[in-house]
Hints:
By secondary structure, the protein is of the alpha+beta class. The chain folds into two domains: 12-264 and 328-354, no CATH class; 266-326. It has eleven helices and eleven strands. Strands 1, 2, 3, 4, 5, 6, 7, 8, 9, 10 and 11 form an eleven-stranded antiparallel β-sheet that branches.
Amino acid sequence: xxxxxxxxxxxxxxxxxxxxxxxxxxxxxxxxxxxxxxxxxxxxxxxxxxxxxxxxxxxxxxxxxxxxxxxxxxxxxxxxxxxxxxxxxxxxxxxxxxxxxxxxxxxxxxxxxxxxxxxxxxxxxxxxxxxxxxxxxxxxxxxxxxxxxxxxxxxxxxxxxxxxxxxxxxxxxxxxxxxxxxxxxxxxxxxxxxxxxxxxxxxxxxxxxxxxxxxxxxxxxxxxxxxxxxxxxxxxxxxxxxxxxxxxxxxxxxxxxxxxxxxxxxxxxxxxxxxxxxxxxxxxxxxxxxxxxxxxxxxxxxxxxxxxxxxxxxxxxxxxxxxxxxxxxxxxxxxxxxxxxxxxxxxxxxxxxxx
Length: 355
């Protein structure tokens, strides 16, 4: 094959979106979008009362619903091996003895795991035509020039900083990742090897730099020598309680719990909910029932109750959207486990399903 470029995807790096580092901790993707990641830690679920957790969820909802179409939010919880007991020094003997006893208990117990939490913001700028039309609405701007990449980047940095400032108000720990931590985090999402990644002199071709294990697809996918098992949450319960999935923090193996939310503006969300409401409202009666109503001039008493309830649910969502209490988004949640032994990977998946 003498072609200069490949015309089909052949490696894991071909499917990765990352292209280059363009600012401190900010990735430019291949489709022109920007992304940056923050590491955070929420309140302790063992000591926090339900009212406190509900308040945290409400404030987080208030911070994230400011983002509209073109934005996506990724929240990830990584469960990984804790490693060795951290070194420590104490000024007095009593404190040192207490820590020595704690260290002995740590070393006598079985394998320890800890969780790391990451919040990623991604923004895809509007198309050039839409950007030019937007510039026409403001006076004092150069209307002959399209969207400036640096201006878009500055706007992305400003918007994400404001959102993170709101999150910092109720999170014990929350901070942006620098270049090295960003590359280390991205590497941990596509590899079973956990190690730090240094920033190259020319931070380009991030996809090829970070992909160090081949991905095998199929019904039993593999990442390098590890067998992958993925569980996707396809439905949501009608009611939840704070920390409903806290038992995942009790599992003694590594996993990745990733949640993606593709945000929608109020205009786009209203169009979507109106379409959904109209579709479910039309399904309340069958074609035969409608024809019978026309022929007999009598209203049919037989309705599809499920379709009627879903139409009412869509109408309630429209009312909440109109009151500016909530925002709408496309949400996908997956939990990924892995192991060198396929049977062990299946057992880990079973334990996650049990939770």
